[in-house]
Amino acid sequence: MKYAGFITTIVVAALAMTACAPVQVYHPKPIAPALTAERLEGRSLSDPQLRRFMEVNLGRPLKTWPLKSWNLNELALAAYYFNPQMQVARDRAEAAEAAIVTAGERPNPTVSLRPGIPSPYLLSLFFDVPVQTAGRRGYKVKQAGALSQAARFNVPLTAWKVRSAVRAALVNYLFDLRQAELAAAATRLQARRVNGLHTQWVAGEIARPTVVSAKATFFNDQMAARAAEGRVLQDRAALAAAIGVPVFALRGIRLRWPGFAQLPSAASLPPRRIQRDAVLNRLDVRQALANYAAAQAGLQLEIARQHPNFQVGSGYDFEEGRNYFVTDLAAVLPIFNRNQGPIAQAEAARKLAAAQLMAVQARAISQSEAALASYRTALAEWKNAEKSTHEIRRILVPLAKQSVTVGETNWLALNSAQLQELTAASAALQSLGRAQQSLGQLEDAVERPLEAGEAAPAFRRVRAPTTPGNKQNDSGQPEARVRQIGRDIR
C-alpha cells in the first residue's frame, strides 16, 4: 500500500503541475488590406519616429527636422526604417531563433491509466519518463543555433542590398538630372543656332538645307531633353520604392552627394585587398559557414540516433484487492537498421554545405575581380573624357569668344564651340555614370563602401513596425531590435 500511495502522489503531483502550467492563448490579429495600404501611403520622411531612429544610429542629435537635404547615408537609414524587406528579414531571424527553444525542450513524461473492464477489481497506473541518449538534445540545440545564426545574417545582408538599391537609384537620379540640364542647355544653344541661321537664310547668305538640318538637330535635342526629364521622374519613383515610401514623400527635399565626382583612385584599391575583403567581409560567406556548422551538427545528431532512446517508469497495479509496485524500462531495439540512411543523408548534406561554401567564396572572388577590372576601365575612360572636356572649356571656347570679339569669326563659330563643349561634357557625364555604377558593383562584391569618407551606418538598433505604418503592433510590444552580427554592414 505504501508503494501505491507513493505512485498516486507522483501522478497527482504531475497532474497538478500540468494544470498549473501557463497555457498560451491564441489572439487573432486580422489584417485589413485597405488599412495597410493607407499606412503605406502615409509614410513620410518627416516621421518623428524616423528622426529618433536616425539619431540612435548616427550617434548624434539632428539639429533640424525634417531634413531639407538628404545624402546617401541618411537615405539608407530611412530605407532601413521603412523598407518592408527589412521587417521580413527580422521576422525570419526571430522564427529561426524560436527553433532553438523547440530544440532545447525536454520530452514530457507520460502517465497512463488502465481500468479493469468489466472487472472493477483490476486497475493499472503507469508513469514513464523518456530519456534521450548520446547527447542528441545538445546536437539539436547546436544545429538550431547555427541555422538561427545563418538566418540572422539575413538582416545585415538585406540591409546591404537595400543600401545598394538606394545607392543605384540615387546615382541614376543625379546622373539623369545632370543629363537633363545638359540637354536643356544644348537645346537653348541649338535654338539660337536655328534663329541665327534662319536670319542668314532670309538674307540670302546660306542655303535653306543648312537651316533645315539645324532645325532637325534642334528637334532631336529637344526630344532628348524631354526624355531626360522623364527619366528624372522615373528615377525619383525608383528611389522612393527603394526607401519604402511613396514618391510624394520626396517632394520638396534636395538630394545631395558632395563627392559624386570624387571617385577613389585605382591605386587605393589594390587587387589583393579587394579579394581579401570579398572572401572575409561578405555576409553570404559567413552565412554559408553557419549553414555548414548546422550540417555538421545535423550529422552529429544522426550519428547519436544510432543509440536508441529509452523510457524509465514505474507503475501501480491493483488486482482483486492486492497492490503491486512495478518498474518499467522500454527501448527501441536497433535490429533491422542502425540509422544508416539518415546518417548517409546527413553526410551528403554536410558535403553539399562545404561545396556551397567553396562556391560562395569562388563567386565572391570572381565578382570582385570582374568588378574591379570594370571599375578601373570606367575610371580611366572618365578621366580621359574629363581631360577632353577641360581642354575644350579652357582653350577652345575662350579662343572662339576672342575671335568673335576681334571680328575674326562670326557667332556661328562660338556657338559650335559651345555645343562641342556640351557634347564633351555629356560624354564625360556618361563615363562618370558608368564609373559610379561600376564602383557600386565593386562595393557589392566586398559589401562595404569604398569612397573616401563614406561609411555605411551600422545598425545599433533597428526599429520597424510589425504592421505597415509607424505604430506598434496590437500587442504593445516595444520596438524590435536587431542584434549586432559581426560587423553588421560596416
Q: Which structural traits does this protein have?
A:
490 residues; alpha+beta; Outer membrane efflux proteins (OEP); four-stranded antiparallel sheet; two-stranded parallel ribbon; 12 helices; 63% helix; elongated; disordered C terminus
Describe this structure in words.
The protein is of the alpha+beta class and 490 residues long. It has a single domain, classed as Outer membrane efflux proteins (OEP) (Up-down Bundle). 63% of the residues lie in helices and 8% in strands. Strand 2 and strand 3 form a beta hairpin. The longest helix has 67 residues. The C terminus is likely disordered.
Largest sheet: 4 strands, antiparallel
Category by helix and strand content: alpha+beta
The percent of residues in helical segments reads 55-70%
What's the average pLDDT?
83
Bulk shape? elongated
Helix-strand pattern: HHHEHHEEHHHEHHEEHH
* Structural domain tally: 1
CATH architecture: Up-down Bundle
Tell me the fraction of residues in β-strands, as a range: 5-15%
Task: Give the C-level CATH assignment.
Answer: Mainly Alpha
Q: Which strand order spans the largest sheet, edge to edge or round the barrel? A: 2-3-5-6
Write down how many β-strands occur, each being a DSSP E stretch of 2 or more residues: 6
From the alpha carbons, calculate the radius of gyration and give it in angstroms: 36 Å
Q: Which consecutive residue ranges, at least 5 long each, have pLDDT under 50?
A: 460-490
Oligomerization state: single chain
Q: Using the coordinates shown, work out and report the CATH topology.
A: Outer membrane efflux proteins (OEP)
Q: Give the N-terminus to C-terminus distance in angstroms.
A: 71 Å
